[in-house]
Amino acid sequence: MTRFGDFQTLCSQVPSYTWCNLFYRQLQTNDPTVLTGLSQSAASAPVGVNPECGIPKVNTNGSLGNIANIIACGLSFFIIGALIYFTGRRKAAVGRIELRIFFVLYLLTLPFQLITSGSLLTQGSTALVALTAIQAGLVATLFWALLANAIVATQIVEDGTLSSIVPFSVLSVAFFVATTYISLDVGFTFTHVLGTSNPPQSINSIPLFVLTSIWPGVAALIYFGLMMYIVLGILNEIRPVWYYVIAGILFVLSQLDYFLLSKIICRGSSMKVDGSFIATILETACVVTLYFAWRGITEEDWDDNLYYPS
Length: 310
Fold this sequence. Notes:
Blueprint: H1 8-13, H2 20-30, H3 67-89, H4 96-116, H5 126-153, H6 162-188, H7 206-234, H8 239-268, H9 276-297, H10 304-307
Helix pairs in contact: 2-6, 3-4, 3-9, 4-5, 5-6, 5-7, 6-7, 7-8, 8-9
């Protein structure tokens, strides 16, 4: 019976599901007999725990690792780098600093994603667990930054000032530290409170599940709700709404691809690629669309009183 916080189904059914790297090390330490099938040999094991389909570690029988997603992450890195540059040039735009922080965080997740889901490092290795934990921290922080951008857009606090940047930064650090520590505890089982699954084969962690699965969805939902209120209720604009609608659709499609189509693609390609590269492309397209949505509601020559009437 599946319980809240169980990763067993995700780690066996979803190829390249990154957080499974943490549980592989946990099982390798506490109950290695659970690791069977593709996961039995750490030297060749793909990302996952006993996955039904997974891309073998690089150089295993000619494997190139998760090459498609490696390329997608590499190209996305340069695209987001360009967004950071163009955002910085819009000196008078509302929320410029906060949006750049969001883009920088997304940029940072890409090389970590490339490594942790690329079948490049040996499963159970200390390096892979540490990098996966840092990525989890970045992802949780990324979605806080997304939500914070919507809060700043309401002008509850003035963007770019200490009243905005200080709480933004403090909560970002809190999300990163908490999620990274919890992830490290899951992988290395420092404690029995947050770390070890009981029973081991359940590979369960409620805090990790909440921060990496529930929190991103909730933050994205609140973000889109707030932005719809701002664009329609305050600005009375229609065109920017379509950017947010498209961004929302791209985000949903990326998750559907990742969780529903990835195994189908993996089997169809004889374990050479999976759906993670499509998810990365769609997620990057979503971020790019958010940039254009922001441009559409923050014209540099707009009067502040026109944008946010008193």
